[in-house]
Design goal:
Order of helices and strands of chain B: HHH
CATH class of chain B: Mainly Alpha
Number of helices of chain A: 14
Number of strands of chain B: 0
Distance between the termini of chain B: 18 Å
Order of helices and strands of chain A: EHEEHHHEHHHEHEHEHEHEHEHHEEEE
Helix content of chain A: 25-40%
Number of strands of chain A: 14
Radius of gyration of chain B: 12 Å
CATH topology of chain B: Non-ribosomal Peptide Synthetase Peptidyl Carrier Protein, Chain A
Shape of chain A: globular
Oligomer: heterodimer
Largest interface: A-B, 6 and 8 residues
Number of domains of chain A: 2
Radius of gyration of chain A: 20 Å
CATH architecture of chain B: Orthogonal Bundle
Strand content of chain A: 15-25%
Structural class of chain B: mainly alpha
CATH architecture of the largest domain in chain A: 3-Layer(aba) Sandwich
Structural class of chain A: alpha/beta
Number of domains of chain B: 1
Number of helices of chain B: 3
CATH topology of the largest domain in chain A: Peroxisomal Thiolase, Chain A, domain 1
Strand order of the largest sheet of chain A: 5-4-6-7-1-8-14-13-9-10
CATH superfamily of the largest domain in chain A: Thiolase/Chalcone synthase
CATH class of the largest domain in chain A: Alpha Beta
Shape of chain B: globular
Largest sheet of chain A: 10 strands, mixed
């Protein structure tokens, strides 16, 4: 099987408009969650989010591009540009024919749905802009990346709610490992911080009105975020041959389905995904130094996730570090696993473990080392990234230091 | 601004040209307006004049709306305004 490595990373999220800004914020334990700046926020019960700040679309895209690019596509193109530039890879000839882009998103162009529903329902107009469909479709971001970078191989979008990014990156990993592709652009993106997008989440009554405090006994729910992270996955030989800088190796991936409940997580399903990723990567449990938790800050997730980690790792569960960076950038839903993979890369490459901020009170049911409030220096050989979605769809990636 | 000037302004904006460069005998192809640009132009015309343009992108030639040149588009728009107002 072909070894798979990461040679480029890019992002835009509530912590920054680049990977270096995001790493800096994670090292400092900075919170990107704040007051939402969106239309009709006064009619929302939840008024906070991990919003991308100081973002001017006209600084990056022209009028015609903006007519076709929803915010989730804009985020993706900026993150992809950063990742591909870092990687130094150029897609042409046979490499172009076999390389593609697989991205995760749960909602696609939610802002475009929202704006145009307003036009026809609230404003009573009977006509919408002709590009509404190509702008809102879930695959718009993947398609625009393929057009921008000449990627003519397998490209598609994965929608598995909060696991979308991990499922997408898992597909990219499998394609390179099996020899279908030499390089893939992958990651995830989401932008549903608009009135309708937040109102829908409000309905579930799992949202916090003040902060995301994963694993802390006084947690009171999740906080939405937005943004994208995109990576260049590449075969080890291909990356070596062109002298690329390798950020980390992708060594394992596993997917499971709980087959039990549409919203409640299952310890068994999560544990099978974690142990599956270890088995897939031929990783001994003791080698895992860091887990980027799904850690949503809901009671249901956090307790289940800690129990699953304890089951899989036994005594080693007390020695490894597990943190939820959602406390800083919020829950990017379909884009979340991609931004969180950055924390795994930082742990492996820089030896810095991103903290779980907002941690105030220990919870006996989450009695693991959650790296509370302050980043920590540690040498890590293997890092896992957990994602457990509504619908019981679990996807866990394993990365190894190179 | 006359109907003619407004239509030319919409077409010029779509083609990213100055209005002076949009000639009455220009075709959309001459101006570099593709199929997406055409439907966006028609949307802008409908919004500007509050009319319905009978146009089906599946087969533009079969539509009653003549898009063969800038002049024909202006004529068609004037006809629709007279018909629908």
């Amino acid at each position: 099987m072909t070894r798979v490595v990461i040679t480029g990373a890019g992002t835009i999220n509530a912590l920054g408009h680049s990977v270096s800004q995001t790493f800096e914020a994670m090292r400092e334990g900075r919170c990107g969650i704040g007051a939402l700046d969106i239309r009709d926020v006064d009619r929302l019960g939840v008024k906070i989010g991990g919003q991308v700040r100081d973002f001017d679309e006209t600084a990056h895209f022209n009028r015609q591009q903006i007519a076709l690019y929803d915010r989730f596509t804009q985020f993706t193109l900026l993150a992809a540009g950063e990742a591909i530039a870092q990687s130094g890879i150029h897609f042409n000839g046979e490499l172009s024919n076999t390389s593609g882009v697989v991205l995760g998103t749960a909602g696609g162009g939610v802002n475009t749905w929202d704006e145009n529903y307003r036009t026809v329902y609230e404003d009573g107009k009977n006509r919408v802009h002709p590009f509404v469909i190509p702008k809102l479709m879930n695959n718009a971001a993947a398609s625009h990346v393929s057009m921008e970078y000449n990627l003519k191989g397998p490209s598609f979008t994965v929608a598995t709610a909060c696991s979308s990014s991990n499922h997408a990156m898992g597909q990219a990993f499998h394609m390179i490992r099996s020899g279908i592709a030499k390089a893939m652009i992958t990651g995830g993106t989401e932008s549903m911080l608009c009135f309708g997008g937040v109102k829908a989440w409000e309905g579930l009554r799992v949202m916090s009105k003040d902060a995301c405090r994963p694993f802390s006994a006084n947690r009171n729910g999740m906080v939405q975020g937005e943004g994208a992270a995109v990576f260049v996955f590449e075969s080890y030989d291909h990356a070596k041959a062109r002298g690329a800088d390798i950020l980390a190796e992708v060594v394992g991936f596993a997917m499971t389905s709980d087959a039990s409940d549409i919203v409640m997580p299952s310890k068994k399903g999560a544990a099978r995904a974690i142990s599956g990723a270890l088995a897939d990567g031929q990783i001994a449990p003791e080698e895992v130094g860091y887990i980027n938790a799904h850690g949503t800050g809901t009671a249901a997730n956090d307790k289940t996730e800690c129990a699953a980690v304890a089951d899989v790792f036994g005594r080693h569960a007390d020695r490894l570090m597990i943190s939820s960076t959602k406390s800083m950038h919020g829950h990017l839903i379909g884009g979340t696993g991609a931004v969180e993979l950055l924390a795994c890369i930082m742990a492996l490459r820089d030896g810095v473990i991103a903290p779980t901020i907002g941690y105030e009170e220990p919870d006996p049911e989450c009695a693991l080392d959650v790296v509370p409030n302050q980043a920590r220096e540690a040498k890590v050989d293997v890092a896992l990234s957990n994602a457990f979605a509504f619908g019981g769809l679990n996807a866990v990636l394993a990365l190894r230091r190179v | 601004m006359s109907v003619k000037d407004k239509v030319i302004k919409i077409i010029a904006e779509q083609a990213v040209l100055d209005v002076e460069d949009v000639k009455m005998d220009s075709t959309l192809e001459d101006l570099g307006i593709d199929s997406l640009g055409l439907v966006e132009s028609i949307f802008a015309i409908e919004e500007e004049f509050d009319i319905q343009v009978p146009f089906n992108a599946n087969d533009p030639a079969e539509s009653d709306f003549d898009i063969s040149s800038v002049a024909s588009i202006i004529d068609a728009v004037q006809g629709l305004i007279a018909e629908q107002s």
